[in-house]
Amino acid sequence: MPWYDEDEVEGEPNVAQTYERQDHGVTEPRVHWRERDPYICTLEIRLPRDEVPKLKSLYGPLLQWIDPTFQLLHIEESDKNSFITRFVQDDPKGRGNESHLAKEQLNTQSLSVVLFLREESKYQLNAGFAKGYLQSPPWGFHHKIELANPMDMRTVARQDYYGSSPDLPLWTVCSVHYGNEQLRFNIFVNNFEKMKEFYSILTGCETSASKPGFCSFDLYSQPGLEIKLSLKYSPCLQPHASRLSALKFNIRSVLYVKQKLRLVLTPNGENTWLTRDPDGNVILLSRDENDVFEVGVAGQSTEASDSGRWSETASEDSSWEMCSDTSCSSFSCESGCESVTTRNEDEDKDSF
């Protein structure tokens, strides 16, 4: 991996822990998360040729030592009607349609990138630098999520999300004071329980953290950095599928995943298929080189609380292509001890 070249942590075993489970005659391989392929999950972004270098230049400062060669965030050239765009538009059940936005909800792209960084680091990339970078043009503030103490409703944690375009992932930076730094691919979801089950099967992971409306999956770890996938549900957010980006998963057994999740797979090049998760997000599946898979096997698609007080007001800043995602009117939505708002505040609280 590009970020660290130190040896394995002393005393930590370097032996893969695997087991297999039989389900309807199909074997599901499992691998200990510390022995996984670091590229089991990547973020694929497709843009017109002249936009690719611009986006790499924009994202580069946030990925300096984490992904300097853009292997985890893979930005490639594509025509205007990319395969992702066509697949979203061809959704027969209209799950890519954004027209059903409720009055009490904020429209948001489903994908986001969450960085957990130290305040001080031997690298230029640290929490303070990254937060300041996201607050500068062409980034635009999108929304924030606050976590409150249920006893006195005092805000104890906050995530501020920023974006550069309505169809590109949002970004947020959180401070971490101990342990590894993290790169987390986050999905804002509509159907939390179905999405949780879907991605547990897809990744072969049990949830490493779980609470009402939130869970995360450990994908990979090495000294200094962990890569995770997380799912977040909020009654105040209406996520929509992106037309320019999608998560890609390198699957150890495509046949198992296809049959277990009853997926319809659309070929997209050699050893790669397009499909959808229960929320209608486009995902790409690539076949592990050790997997043997017959494309002709028939399959069927499936359809597949957060605790807190929720409140939201319209954004005062809709800069640089963010207008369509921050035009929500004022509203209040109660659900316990969290809140979502589109108004950025200057206070600096530790993020969760």
TrEMBL record:
Residues 300-313 have a biased composition (Polar residues). It comes from the Eukaryota. Residues 321-339 have a biased composition (Low complexity). Residues 343-352 have a biased composition (Basic and acidic residues). Residues 41-285 form the FAM124 domain. Pfam families: FAM124. InterPro entries: FAM124 (IPR029380), FAM124_dom (IPR046365). Residues 300-352 are annotated as: Disordered. Belongs to the FAM124 family. This is FAM124 domain-containing protein.
